[in-house]
């Protein structure tokens, strides 16, 4: 994943960080594992990654707390800074555990660090409460000095900018009497189980509800078949142009069924593309906004 921006301030700071801040290197002895491309080995790798998820999150959490203590107790800055570096390495070890084994017990080491920095007595910063669900308020120490708390309390007055209108991306075509046809298309598309799709996206891949996934795929295939039966011909380009433009502007539209389609525009485009890939591509402008 890459974050791309033309905001000069962010680019400038990114360059400074690259030049002036060192990357922590993991020098813990390791033994390389060799996997043959079999289903059993794929399952083993997945299991190793899954079992290390807790350690990855926990090392980051304890590092955040250690950074808070570093700001609160500057006389012990070197100690807490060193602990943050150790925890960064432990996170690397946890992430790489599927590919190689290391001569260290990550879980045990993190627990030892928790005891060493005395979290039980010093407790947690204020930002821990809104970022951790059902967290006990009694464990918050309001005297801790944490930069994340400053961000939490910071209020910005930056005005919200409107997005680029969809008309900048979609070609417009003459719309020959599409009312009856568009109603049929919208009705077919709205049979898609958008709620199932939203739920499937929100679950962890290891906990996916495959029954719901099967329902979604079945709905999808049925929609494609029924849309192909309509034999839209030359009308299809104008219809897609109108449908995409209207769906992306659903808040300004009171046509029945459009707001439902707006809930998942990606799924909508996928269905339309499956019916006629070339038509959908030609509906979008070849050149971007100047």
The portion of residues assigned to helices is 55-70%
Widest β-sheet, arrangement of strands = 1-2
Instruction: Give a short account of the largest sheet.
Output: 2 strands, antiparallel
What global shape is seen? Answer: elongated
Termini distance? 26 Å
Please tell me how large the radius of gyration is: 27 Å
Poorly predicted spans: 200-208
* Number of separate strands: 2
> Averaged pLDDT, please?
79
> Helix- and strand-based class?
mainly alpha
* Order of helix and strand elements from N to C terminus: HEHHHEHHHHHHHHHHH
* Total tally of structural domains: 2
Strand content: under 5%
Q: Please, how many helices?
A: 15
Question: Which terms would index this structure?
Answer:
290 residues, two-stranded antiparallel sheet, mainly alpha, 2 domains, 58% helix
Structure description:
The protein has 290 residues and is mostly helical. It is 58% helix and 2% strand. A two-stranded antiparallel ribbon has the order 1-2. Helix 11 packs across helix 14. It folds into two domains: 8-149, no CATH class; 167-283. It contains 15 helices and two strands. It has helices at residues 8-20, 39-51, 53-72, 77-96, 106-116, 119-122, 128-131, 147-153, 179-189, 194-202, 210-229, 235-248, 258-262, 265-275, 277-283; strands at residues 30-32, 100-102.
């Amino acid at each position: 994943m890459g974050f791309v921006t033309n905001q000069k301030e962010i680019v400038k700071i990114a360059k400074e960080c690259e030049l002036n801040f060192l990357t922590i290197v993991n020098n813990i002895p390791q033994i390389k594992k060799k996997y043959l491309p079999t289903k059993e080995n794929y399952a083993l790798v997945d299991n190793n990654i899954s079992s290390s998820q807790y350690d990855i999150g926990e090392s980051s959490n304890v590092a955040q707390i250690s950074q808070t203590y570093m700001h609160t107790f500057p006389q012990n800055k070197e100690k807490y800074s060193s602990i943050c570096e150790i925890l960064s390495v432990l996170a690397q070890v946890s992430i790489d555990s599927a590919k190689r084994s290391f001569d260290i017990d990550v879980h045990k080491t993190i627990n030892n660090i928790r005891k060493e920095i005395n979290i039980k007595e010093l407790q947690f910063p204020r930002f821990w409460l809104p970022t951790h669900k059902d967290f006990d308020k009694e464990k918050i120490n309001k005297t801790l000095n944490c930069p994340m708390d400053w961000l939490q309390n910071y209020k910005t007055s930056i005005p919200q900018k409107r997005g680029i209108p969809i008309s900048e991306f979609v070609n417009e075509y003459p719309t020959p009497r599409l009312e009856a046809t568009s109603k049929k298309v919208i009705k077919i598309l709205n049979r898609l189980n958008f709620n199932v799709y939203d739920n499937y996206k929100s679950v962890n891949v290891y906990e996916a509800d495959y029954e719901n996934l099967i329902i979604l795929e079945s709905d999808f295939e049925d929609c494609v078949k029924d849309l192909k039966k309509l034999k839209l011909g030359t009308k299809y380009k104008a219809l897609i142009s109108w449908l995409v433009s209207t769906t992306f502007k659903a808040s300004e539209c009171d046509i029945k069924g459009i707001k439902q389609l707006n809930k998942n525009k990606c799924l909508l485009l996928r269905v339309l593309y499956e019916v006629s890939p070339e038509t959908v591509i030609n509906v979008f402008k070849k050149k971007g906004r100047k």
